[in-house]
């Protein structure tokens, strides 16, 4: 009994201390402090519930940027190249020492740390954290300048022609993997690092933040026609900038629809929409915002689908899901495309309209890609494409369009069904014609019947004259 009492007493004492601790924390609740903490974070670890669908999509395979994947086995071979890039970077900036750059990074250390959520304890060491930022930042700058400036750039003169990374050969075979790793949410580096370290000459009338923005966007798509609004302050990270370039402007709004306003129904597949009279055409820009529906015409931006499309969209959607103020435009686009793409036939139709440029080779593979992208995706009820969704749904719900779609779906899906329909229509026309003719002959007065009967019908051959007897 004594032991039980002691156990109860220990439990009460433990519970009492926990209650006191909670009461103390209640007094420390500060909404402004919490808001300040959450608003600065922009680089997250992707939760397991998202990762388990495609773990490789969120894990860098060639190079790590930032602390989350630093030192992992698959990215360790690139570390020696990152160190060499640092040496070349410092060799060109002879007027500034390594201590200068570390000092500049130290000034913004708190902001850099605040960008990451759930940093490991090993990065509590100030020197280790700043050294990692310096090495990764210099490597990214070297990659950006080398890839966007061309062969004749002065940076290329500081690397030998056989360099495995910073050469024509390296840019051809290694750069695509580096570019893919730079678009992974967990592998982001704050653009503030690049702004702090870059010492390249500035164009007249511009700022370092603007130059970094242009440099990153040119690296991801040198032929992009997106008009990204020039920011007064540097962006969050490369993934965030790339997302802005995909959106590239205000969302196109479909005109309000009259009558039915229900948008609860799913948008049909592209083939079914086509059967219902919906026509597809390319939007004027490649912005994911440039989607509209007007007078039965659905305008969609051109998209190139290749090996990196899946990883790119998954990380963009993860960023929108985890970052409070990011928006939901990319997620809404993927969800919409999943609705209108059910099979390879839908992809083939959109490809024939120039909307999908298939670099995967198989229409079935593209259909599977979009069907898996939106798995377990939660769509905001106030989606940026809600107006388009509603307009398309209401258009297809009209009686004439539903009848037209059913007719085409039933009788025009195969040549045999069409021939059967044509034969049936032909027989119906013949039957109606015969019936009409019979009725017409019955009721039509025949005024010339008597005269016709009294007169002999004309003969085609007259009988020969009779011969008189001799």
Automatic annotation (TrEMBL):
The chain crosses the membrane at residues 416-440. Residues 460-470 have a biased composition (Pro residues). Keywords: Membrane, Transmembrane, Transmembrane helix. Pfam families: DUF247. Residues 448-470 are annotated as: Disordered. Residues 450-459 have a biased composition (Low complexity). InterPro entries: DUF247_pln. This is UPF0481 protein At3g47200-like. It comes from Dioscorea cayennensis subsp. rotundata (White Guinea yam).
């Amino acid at each position: 009994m004594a032991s039980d009492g002691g156990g109860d007493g220990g439990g009460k004492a433990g519970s009492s201390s926990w209650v006191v601790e909670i009461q103390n924390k209640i007094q420390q609740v500060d909404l402004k402090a919490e808001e300040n903490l959450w608003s600065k974070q922009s680089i997250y670890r992707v939760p397991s519930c998202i990762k388990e669908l495609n773990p490789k999509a969120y894990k860098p395979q060639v190079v790590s940027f930032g602390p989350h994947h630093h030192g992992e086995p698959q990215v360790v071979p690139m570390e020696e190249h990152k160190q060499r890039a640092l040496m070349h970077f410092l060799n060109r900036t002879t007027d500034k020492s390594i201590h200068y750059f570390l000092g500049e990074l130290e000034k913004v250390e708190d902001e850099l740390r605040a960008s990451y959520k759930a940093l490991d304890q090993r990065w509590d060491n100030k020197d280790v954290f700043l050294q990692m930022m310096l090495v990764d930042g210099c490597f990214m700058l070297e990659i950006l300048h080398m890839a966007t400036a061309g062969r004749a750039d002065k940076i290329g003169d500081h690397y030998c022609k056989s360099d495995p990374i910073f050469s024509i050969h390296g840019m051809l075979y290694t750069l695509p993997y580096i570019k893919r790793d730079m678009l992974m949410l967990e592998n982001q580096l704050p653009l503030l690092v690049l702004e702090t370290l870059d010492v390249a000459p500035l164009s007249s009338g511009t700022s370092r933040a603007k130059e970094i923005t242009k440099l990153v966007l040119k690296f991801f798509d040198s032929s992009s026609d997106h008009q990204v609004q020039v920011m007064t302050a540097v962006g969050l990270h490369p993934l965030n900038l790339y997302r802005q370039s995909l959106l590239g402007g205000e969302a196109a709004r479909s005109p309000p629809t009259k009558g039915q306003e229900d948008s609860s129904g799913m948008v049909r597949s592209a083939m079914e929409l086509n059967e219902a009279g919906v026509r597809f055409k390319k939007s004027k820009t490649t912005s994911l915002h440039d989607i509209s529906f007007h007078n039965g015409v659905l305008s969609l931006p051109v998209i190139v689908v290749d090996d990196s499309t899946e990883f790119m969209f998954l990380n963009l959607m993860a960023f929108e899901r985890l970052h409070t103020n990011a928006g939901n435009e990319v997620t809404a686009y993927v969800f919409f495309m999943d609705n209108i793409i059910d099979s390879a036939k839908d992809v083939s139709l959109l490809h024939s309209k120039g909307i999908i440029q298939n670099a995967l080779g198989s229409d079935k593979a593209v259909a599977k890609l979009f069907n898996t992208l939106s798995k377990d995706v939660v769509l905001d009820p106030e989606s940026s494409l809600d107006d388009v969704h509603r307009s398309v749904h209401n258009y297809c719900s009209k009686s004439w369009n539903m009848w037209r779609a059913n007719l085409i779906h039933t009788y025009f899906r195969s040549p045999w069904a069409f021939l059967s329909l044509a034969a049936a229509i032909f027989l119906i026309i013949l039957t109606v014609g015969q019936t009409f003719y019979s009725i017409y002959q019955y009721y039509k007065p025949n005024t010339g019947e008597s005269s016709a009967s009294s007169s002999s019908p004309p003969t085609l051959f007259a009988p020969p004259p009779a011969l008189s007897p001799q």
